[in-house]
Amino acid sequence: MTAALAKLGAVLDVLCPMHVILSGSGHVRHTGATLQKLCPGRRLTGMAVFDLFEIRRPRDLRTMDDLRRAAGSKLHLQLRDPPRTAFKGVVAPWGDGAVINLSFGIAILDAVRDHALTSADFAATDMTVEMLYLVEAKSAAMEAGRKLNQRLEGARIAAEEQAFTDTLTGLKNRRALDHVLRRTGRAGRPFALLHLDLDYFKAVNDTLGHPAGDHVLQRVAAILVEETREKDTVARTGGDEFVLVLQGPADPGRVARIACRIIARLEQPIPYDGRVCRISGSIGISLSGSYDSPDPGRMMADADLALYTSKRQGRARHTIFVPP
């Protein structure tokens, strides 16, 4: 490299780090560091300029003389290698060769993304640097907004879950049950409704205290979840009252078997703090198939009537309501 070329290259490296110095034959003698970064793994020095770039406009530039005659005019170029980065350029004659200074124009954001460019890849006075700062600030603001939205969405979901969840047992609450019944009624899907009331629960609270009663309720909740499917609904609607909505065809025999399993499990002793809690359960059942036009409100009332029948007949049993 001649002394003159070295001096020019040193100046251009600072002022416009995306430049090409060409010889009279149109071969690259020197490039700025940023342009070299756009072509990783390639030695640009010695390449013919028309092998490095495709000049899209003006279309009639095919020789070095053509380039020199285009001095001062805006060029539209792009690299021939992927990702075929696009540039704007201007030519200035230098000796028997030329200097082409390049910029990205409106393709700046694509170039920054494709080549991981930073402010260090541009001249300090290049307005592109200001644009990069704005892009970075916008990206940071959008990321902060995204994270805030995620937190707000998480808080909304948590609040909604809390509003529809019984805090002691983790089951659905009465509000959630009403929502499920309305949705099931609108959909016209068959279902069975089971109203469960615990027998002898008051005795547990009176003899062992409310912490023991809470423990029993949590154990009952676990049993009900284990005996139902994921698509079914289990809700605690009162102190020791639970409602189950079993989705799908409500075959009386199948529903009766589920009720019997639940009652049998509730009769098993529940250990608590070295003592034993003993309860049972009475269940009233209404089946959507028993009605010409099932109404969840009426089915709930009928399940209550069936529950009272189970209580009167000795508890620890189930009764299926049969409409008159």
From TrEMBL:
This is Diguanylate cyclase (GGDEF) domain-containing protein. Coiled coil: none annotated. Residues 189-323 form the GGDEF domain. It comes from the Bacteria. NCBIfam families: GGDEF (TIGR00254). InterPro entries: DGC-Regulatory_Protein, GGDEF_dom, HNOB_dom_associated_sf, Nucleotide_cyclase, Rev_trsase/Diguanyl_cyclase. Pfam families: GGDEF.
